Amino acid sequence: MTYSRIAGTGRYLPEKILTNADLEKIVDTTAEWIKTRTGVERRHCCAPDQTTSDMCVEAAKIAIDDAGINLSDIDMVVIGTTTPDLIFPNIATLVQHRLGIPACIAFSLEAACTGFIYALTTADKFIKADEAKCVLVIGAECLTKLVDWNDRNTCVLFGDGAGAVILKPSEKPGIISCHLGADGQYKDLLYYPVGPSKDLHKAGTDEVAIIMAGKEVFKVAVNMLGKVATQALESSGISKDELDWLIPHQANIRIIQATAKRLKIPMEKVVLTVQDHGNTSAASVPMALDVAVRDGRVKRDQLVLMEAFGGGFTWGSVLMRF
Ligand code: ACO
User: What is the DSSP letter of 5?
Assistant: First the structure.
């Protein structure tokens, strides 16, 4: 049996930092409200001419270097994002070409904030099926280009960034289990109201921005993140006490705390980046992983549970030995 295992990680955050104090000057809010209600203290924002693929390329270079591989080793690129540069060609082809990776399988998928977990799960299946030997997996997003900067309910939440990993075959896990789920009955609680086949001409105008029913999203998120984590542990016969790290989607500190409490996992075992990154959607989990690997918290062979939840709703988890 072939398993897949992460061989390297990387992240990229845009230079521009927007603090809560900066937001006080833009909308009717206070730095204290944002910190206590969301946990966010600062977020990085793309420059106007900076795209999601720009961020992917930088994060990927670091992950490739960390894994000690050659560009020609990579035979698949998969990117989870809801904010690609173009409708087509897909962003993975742009990133493959810009990095100088020889022609290979390259595609993107969209599962909102669960995009990286969906992408990593897909890469795991390709490796297990012996269809790929070295996969560049990225979660990347620039949601700050989609928010209404007059809407204090949403503009304080989001940030931009990209997180990348290299996934390779391994004789031992590696990835132990993946669980994905989705239910479109919740589509009206969190969405962006235009797209390629619907009212595209309104994109980027004041008329459209992210629409979110915050309280309802909060409740379902805590419930689903608890369920998908329990499913991951139970299906693998691993107890929560054996877990070294929980790396949840970084949407709101209170969602993370409520989920950890429900799972009875102490906050000391939870990786938090929401204070520095805000909610970076598909980028949040791989960036948090990279932060914790580079600061020495997540070590080789430790048990790590990553999980995410996003618009759709979509949700998912990956349980792995790093
Ligand atoms: N500054 C000051 N006051 C604010 C702000 C702000 N930035 N935003 C909202 N408020 C006000 C509201 O208008 C409301 O005022 P009112 O009582 O006079 O009507 C009051 O604060 C309380 O609003 P609530 O919605 O009850 O605040 P809540 O404690 O629920 O926090 C929040 C709001 C932060 C949005 C929370 O519900 C949340 O985090 N929900 C989940 C959001 C989320 O995670 N979305 C993404 C998940 S999936 C994905 O990542 C794509």
Answer: E
Question: Which one from 113, 142, 155, 178 is the annotated catalytic residue?
Answer: 113
Distance 3 CA to ligand 1 centre (A): 41
pLDDT value of residue 203: 84
Name which of 292, 287, 275 is nearest 62 in CA terms: 287
Looking at residue 160, the DSSP 8-state letter turns out to be E
Please confirm, yes or no, whether 249 is among the known catalytic residues: yes
Q: Which of 203, 263, 257 is nearest to 228 (CA)?
A: 263
Name the nearest CA neighbour of 180 among 123, 127, 248, 228.
228
Cβ-based neighbours of 64, under 8 Å, separated by 6 or more: 8, 10, 71, 74, 99, 136, 166
Whether 153 is catalytic is: no
> How would you class 107 by CB atoms within 10 Å of its CB: exposed for 0-12, middle for 13-18, buried for 19 or more?
middle
Residue 152 Cβ < 6 Å to ligand 1: yes
Q: How many CB atoms lie within 10 A of CB 75?
A: 18
The backbone region for 321, taken as left when phi is positive above 0, alpha when psi lies in -120 to 50, beta otherwise, is beta
Q: Is 275 in the pocket of ligand 1 (CB under 6 A)?
A: no
The first and second tokens of residue 197, run together, are 């086949």
Q: Is there a contact between 163 and 287 (Cβ–Cβ < 8 Å)? A: yes
Give the C-alpha separation, 190 to 193, whole Å. Answer: 9
Q: What is the pLDDT of residues 204-259, one digit of tens each?
A: 787 898 999 999 999 999 999 999 999 999 999 999 999 999 999 999 999 999 99
Instruction: Look up residue 15 and give its two tokens.
Output: 């230079």
Q: What is the pTM of this model?
A: 0.96
Secondary structure letter of residue 17 according to DSSP: E
Residue nearest to atom 38 of ligand 1 (CA): 214
The answer to whether 82 touches 112, Cβ cutoff 8 Å, is: yes
Residue 43: pLDDT band (50, 70, 90) is: very high
Q: Residue 204: its pLDDT value, please?
A: 76
